Amino acid sequence: MNVHIVLAHPSPTSLCASLCDEAVAFLTANGHEVTVSDLYAMKWKAVADYDDLGSHTDGTYIDASGEAYRDGGLSEDIRTEQARIEAADAVVLLFPLWWFSMPAIMKGWVDRVLVNGLGYGTTRGWKRYGDGAYAGKRGMVITAAGGSETVLSERGVSGSITDILWPINHGILYYTGMDVLEPHVVTSAVTVDSDRYQNLVAELRERLEGLETDEPIAYRSQAGGDYDERRRLKPGRERPGTSGFDLHIA
């Protein structure tokens, strides 16, 4: 399969960068094609503005203001990233967990690359949440967090890592149609010695072995019949004892 990794860490000697190198080596050795967008090394522009969209003339896509533009009006760096996603069977977002989210440079990648008409579609009848333009592709988060496993648990002071990553897994990857795998989370990432690093590499390889075959998170599709005309979950569709984000997992 073709795998596109988007990496966001300012240091080329960081744990995230090392895990990216390990992932590329493992996937390549197992016959996969891999591309990498190292956002800091690319000096990726993180702010979306009208320079990205050209002159907005004679367009096919619609931006948030209702103005139309063509794919050809997008800046070259955006078109390059879109082509990499189009060619990929799986997209991996690899980043350190900063302030309960991805680094700003990666959020800027999301804002600029996953534009209306490609990442999702108001022009196609608001097709999203399992039915976006990237349906059929796989998506996965790999993140390194300073907090311990207990801190990032349901009763931990920081809350469940599953809830923390919900906006990315459900609100970005699944929104655009991807089948989203359980995230691979490295906890206590500030205390990694050589012995633990080897264990982390083994765990990463195990997860990557299932990149093509592991069952995705069973998010409910917007068009699957579980939601009413106002996009609210229909009564009786929830699993017993569930609430919050878990209501939207079948």
From TrEMBL:
Residues 1-207 form the Flavodoxin-like fold domain. GO terms for molecular function: oxidoreductase activity. It is an enzyme of class 1 (oxidoreductase). Residues 227-240 have a biased composition (Basic and acidic residues). Its EC number is 1.-.-.-, 1.6.99.-. Gene3D superfamilies: 3.40.50.360. Keywords: Oxidoreductase. Pfam families: Flavodoxin_2. Residues 218-250 are annotated as: Disordered. The keyword Oxidoreductase applies. Belongs to the NAD(P)H dehydrogenase (quinone) family. PANTHER family: NAD P H OXIDOREDUCTASE-RELATED (PTHR10204), NAD(P)H DEHYDROGENASE [QUINONE] 1 ISOFORM 1 (PTHR10204:SF34). This is NAD(P)H-dependent oxidoreductase. It comes from Salininema proteolyticum.
